[in-house]
Amino acid sequence: MMTCQDLAARIEMLQPDAPARDVARLCLLLTNLVDDLDELTDDKRLYESWVRAGLRLQAVTDQHSAMTEELEALALTEPNQLSQEDFFTLFRAIKVQSRVLDLYVGQEVATD
Questions:
Q1: What is the extent of the structural domain holding 39?
Q2: What pTM value is reported for the model?
Q3: Would you tell me which of 14, 29, 43, 104 could form a disulfide with 53, CB atoms 3.0–4.6 Å apart?
């Protein structure tokens, strides 16, 4: 039975220069992505899951980055001058932040 330590060791073998924080993050993402951790003992399955986790993380990271830029611009607006579109921006920011959290707690990430 594969443990998180076993998975971390496999990741470190595949990516020896990875910082411990990145290895831990990848372990968390991968364990949330598969139903049975033993699936990741197969190199092909580990690679496929790794790529899938990376793509999901990249998509959410890109959304988060874009939303951060919008929020920084919005922060320069006087509160009494906020438009309806500005409030929609705030709601989208909450949704994007929720997607980031979903990745780390093992919830399915919506792609809409």
A1: 4-105
A2: 0.67
A3: 29
